[in-house]
Amino acid sequence: MKIERFDLIIVGAGPSGLSAAIEAAKHGMRVVVFDENAKPGGQLFKQIHKFFGSKEHKAKIRGFHIGEQLLAEADSVGVKVELNATVVGLYQDREVVVRMGDEVHHFKGDAIIIATGAAENMVLFDGWNLPGVMGAGAAQTLMNLYGVKPGEKILMLGSGNVGLVVSFQLLQAGCDVVALVDAAPKIGGYGVHAAKVARTGVPFYLSHTIKKAEGTDHVTGVTIAEVDSHFQFIPGTDKHFDVDTICVAVGLSPMSQLLKMAGCKMEDNPKRGGQVPIIGEYGETSIPGIYAAGDVSGIEEASSAMIEGRMSGVVAAEYLGFMTAEEKAEKLDQLNQSLDALRQGMFAPKNRGKKITETEEGIPVSESLLHKGFVADDEIERYPGVTHRAGVHPVIECTQNIPCNPCQDACKKHCIRIGSEITSLPAVEPDSTCIDCGMCVASCPGQAIFLINEDDGAGNAEITLPYEFLPLPKVGDKGVALGRSGSPVCEAEVARVRSSKAFDGTNLLTIRVPAKYAMTARFFKTNAQQKEAAE
Amino acid sequence: MAGRIAQHPILGVQSENKKIVTFRYDGKEMKGYEGEPIAAALKANGVMVHRYTMKQHKPRGIFCAIGRCTDCVMVVDGEPNVRTCMTPLVEGMDVRTQYGVSDKPFSEQ
Fold it and tell me: d(Cα B74, Cα B70) in Å, to the nearest integer?
């Protein structure tokens, strides 16, 4: 039997696996990455939203573009990626067994990095396995990779970032999202992700879950009901929706089977998403030379997975003598700082499950945002990004401490200040001059920045908002302005539409409304769209 | 084609430069894009049910779309248990609903 040897074998060509491969290959290691899929990149190519973080984390770049950059970098340093190659075994002495086509091949790695990622969780309800019930990730795969609508009328279960982001992407694909439902009493994901869904008119049902998916051969409807604090259904609270699709976004579980098979010490750790290897600071498992990186060692997100991948690549390189201990320490120090920055704020792993009542600035959090998906009109004024002045100025409806700061760099006139802590709420500088360039609106991954001229002198206000839907309204189109809740607030007319390569797919829509609605109108629908939504 | 996103605000026209191929679904002629997963082509054609379970004859369709759950398996070119979400569509493919592990309805088995 022929066994091919590599310095480093990586399982999984997603964000962490590719990042690990890049670091290792840069230091002269002979690396191969196995992936069972036909295309590399893992889940990155399904992510069409702009990422959070700061410049070093590739913030404000869309996920699939980050994927393209990563592939190009891997290619440039000579990383070999074997696709349609399923690793079916990891045995003693780091022997890797791979199924390719109808053949099984054996390999040996002096070091192994497992970066197999995670799989979607499911919840059981009557009819949960009817055709038409699918993972939110499955819907994302269909629409963003293959250009196929997952359904026409869809109910989303789960208000974590996946549920919120995929709901928005379903709207972008032209699907109708009839409701966003979560058994928890509070929205799990970023407030800005919830707010951009809520203002389009999607209703949120917190403390609700699915009772039954209806239909004989496939989904034709769904009944949800309210639950009490023990997650028991409250009689008489049933609500029915006609839908053809139900998306489920109730978390992810690490795909850690290979590590278990290899004999790595494992633990059940709910904070990390389930069965995970017990690892050191840089992914070292209990078996020397075997490392874990990315979601397989604990559920987080792609940005931190990429840093973890680089860390494990560096550690493996030093373990095999491709790098000195000093070089390793220096590299890890940089990567640690980068990872630390991402793990701060209200949603940091260390804050999971904690009740947070105030921002880092001591401002009470928006209860409406947590329970309904949008900041209430009487809450918005207390945040430092929301100020008033004559002429056009940014209004930044960013109300939670999350690691993200592209707006600060986007404004060349220094109107926006976050400071050195990237989780701080953005504030508008009092003595700055806004030139209405729109870069802040387009660069905000949370789509939470608006440019507002509160009074144009003729009794109207002009509101510039980020718009990523089709068809793109035209100047002169008449319709309704929707509030943060998605309810109509007043009539509106499109005054200006801006598209630019620098905005990277985000269009800037300027609507004109009566001046008294300057601080409440936050979305636009044409009369025809609003009529369709009402039906 | 029905079920396709003609134009996407971020991704543009996703069908650009793709080759249309013909395949058969339970004997009926359908069209899809070469190389896309069989499941995507079926979804675009409005097919919801991929198989019926062996014991209870319950319908199953696309569930995970990344090759993990095996809910979407069908009989492809005579071979049962083919994961349609992972298998690329090829011109002339014969795709059939799977009943248990057969392409024959239970009444004929």
Answer: 9
